[in-house]
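re: ur question from the group chat, yeah i did fold both. here u go
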Amino acid sequence: MSQNDDERLDQWLRDAHAMEQQAVKMLDSMAGRIENYPELKARIARHAEETRLQAASLEDCLKRRGSDVSTLKDMAGKFMGIGQGLSGLVAGDEIVKGSMAGYTFEHMEIAAYRVLIATAERAGDTETRDACQAILREEEEMADWLADHLGPTTLRYLEREASGQTAKH
């Protein structure tokens, strides 16, 4: 382990914390607009709560390591999340595009946690590794859920649209 490994781990933990702050904003925004897809709304709301706990876990890791979150990165992540959340307001097929974006974002998070796990392992920080492994499992579960529901959500959207019902969200 080198000092650089520890510095890199702290940097990537801060990045992950900002990523989770962004995710909370996106999830809350989308869940708040969903009206006609109750199962998706409930799963997104549940994952938003998981995401809040994930951010807290990352903050605990940083504090235990003698570091702290990056206020600037967190603010940037939140603003990006707000922007992404608002972008759905103009999309007529928001529910489909939002599901696709969520699936993509989950895979970015999965990659980030795999990087963090490897780095924590190299740095000899088993507590951070274990925390990141727990978060990784939740991200994989959400990605799997979204994958299983992309087809049915799309078909429900198309059926609602064809019948003249509100299909957007």
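okk and heres the other one u asked abt
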Amino acid sequence: MKKLTKVIISCAITGSIHTPTMSDALPVNADQIAEQALGAAEAGAAILHLHARNEADGAPSSAPEDYMRFLPRIKQGCDAVVNITTGGGLGMSLDQRLLAANTLKPELASMNMGSLNFGLFQAAEKISSFKQPWEKGYLEMTKDFILSNTFSQIERGITELSGHGTRFEFECYDVGHLYNLAWAVERKLVQPPFLVQCIFGVLGGIGPDAENLMHMKRVADSLFGDDYILSILGAGRHQTSLVTLGAILGGCVRVGLEDSIYLGKGVLARSNAEQVAKIKRILTELSLEVATPDDARQMLLLKGADQTAF
């Protein structure tokens, strides 16, 4: 793992996992996404990971015009790095998933590094009534759903976005995904440094245990040596403990309402900024320095905000 002097805080603002019924704080339209993204940047997030939602009902959207409702406002209001999803919403085709990043050419984009069962159906069992008609079916269909990221799909996504100068947040939900990234490295599809986002706690991926984090780090160390930057994502109630452990081990952190709608046990977060402020406070107490957006650009060799298409 690359030795870091500063910790990058990424904030995943809305995602496509949580639905409007789950939290009133979840940003589900452009105004809310822009406001919360700017708040997270002000609180200390160097990278903003962004999905779009349909203005009418808050459902996940892949339409570039939905992204353009908030991206220019974010760019004008802060200097944070914009990271656009290529995971999109569950059930989207690969064309849909790549559309926004291919059109808008961000500095950074997520790239899922393997197929997996992606189970959200248990959440539907806990909710008796929904705000929007699409929510229940969206969650329940994941009992028979595979998030597809074949080698061909990975190669296509990396090749197309690399042509725009976009670099990647490599999302690894299990140990095998690290080996898939090593395959891409061996084929010279990607160049270091690699931002490796290890994800714990999604049903279908690796479990949210400290031992699993240590194992993922050991495997990544063996595969990538000093050529990668580790970042940790803990889903749901595991967010704070796992990202803190990752930071102690020398990695970076990701928080945000995409990953967890809670601030602490039984306490819903009121905003993304609240989660960012919490992890920044913890990092500071651990005597770790938080990276600025320009630090992140230098650490990840990004092309600069002036080279994007928004």
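fwiw on the second one: The chain has one domain: 6-307. Residues 210-224 form the longest helix (15 residues). idk if thats what u expected
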